[in-house]
Amino acid sequence: MRLLISFIVFAFAVSGLPSSFAAEKPETPHLAFVTEYVRELAATEKVRAAAEKELTQAKDDTDRLVIAIHNSTLIQLELQSQIIMLKGMKLNQPFEDLIPNIMSFYHKKIELHQQLIDISTALLSGPKPDVDYGKLAAEAPKIRAQLDYIDKALFEATPLVFATLIDPKPDSQNHVSHLIIKKAERAKLINDVNGYFGQKLNQKDQNYTVSTASVLKAYFLKDYKCSDEPWQ
Asked: Which DSSP letter does residue 226 get?
């Protein structure tokens, strides 16, 4: 609960989006939400990995700035498409704020990437007397730190994403021991994570996106029973 409160507070601090904007929508099946979230993680990582590879092939600083603009634009487009998908979804209590908060972070990331685009564009435009290029250069690492902080916050929200799949009904021992999904559905989620991320799941130095996928997979593998398994 403490993590949920922190997540909500930070999300509204960075964007101010109201939590009730989707109040009229019917609830989205939780499996559909988690499946989409896994897909979004994979799409984000695909763009990031391609950008990293492209930067290693840059010939000079000018080339690196052009590549930076291109890649930040691709990330913005991907995040915008993900926001569109999430806008059509809604979760009821106690998870009603989870999707709006994720969208809040995505909106903030789009803004930060636009700042990186603006800085790179200014540096490419050539010397101008009214531009403080030193200040511009100093802003870039600050922006990247904010992006890292958002990715960390999203990573720390991973238990909440998985919790949407937990059946709140206790078993005979008064334990919450079942998921709301079937065995085949859980197997598909695990296969999706494996298929999207492959060997990256085994890397020691994972970025936050891959780490989120790894944590989700670990939760999927926990000893919860599925909805089509016997209740005790």
From this structure: P
Radius of gyration in angstroms for the set of CA atoms belonging to the chain, rounded to a whole number = 20
Q: What is the rounded CA–CA span in Å between residue 138 and residue 146?
A: 14
Using CA atoms, how far apart are residues 29 and 26, in angstroms rounded to an integer? 9
Phi, psi of 168 (to 5 degrees): -70, -10
Rounded Cα distance, 195 and 192, in Å: 5
Backbone angles phi, psi at 219, to 5 degrees: -65, -40
Query: 141-151 pLDDT, tens per residue?
Result: 999 999 999 99
Q: pLDDT tens across 172-202, in order?
A: 888 889 999 999 999 999 999 999 999 999 9
DSSP state, residue 20 = T
First to last CA, the chain: 27
Is the bond preceding 94 in cis, omega lying within 30 degrees of 0? yes
What DSSP designation does 166 have? B
Residue with tokens 């021992």: 173
- Using pLDDT thresholds of 50, 70 and 90, give the confidence band for residue 9: very low
CA distance 14 to 147: 12
The rounded distance, in Å, linking the Cα atoms of 117 and 67 is 10
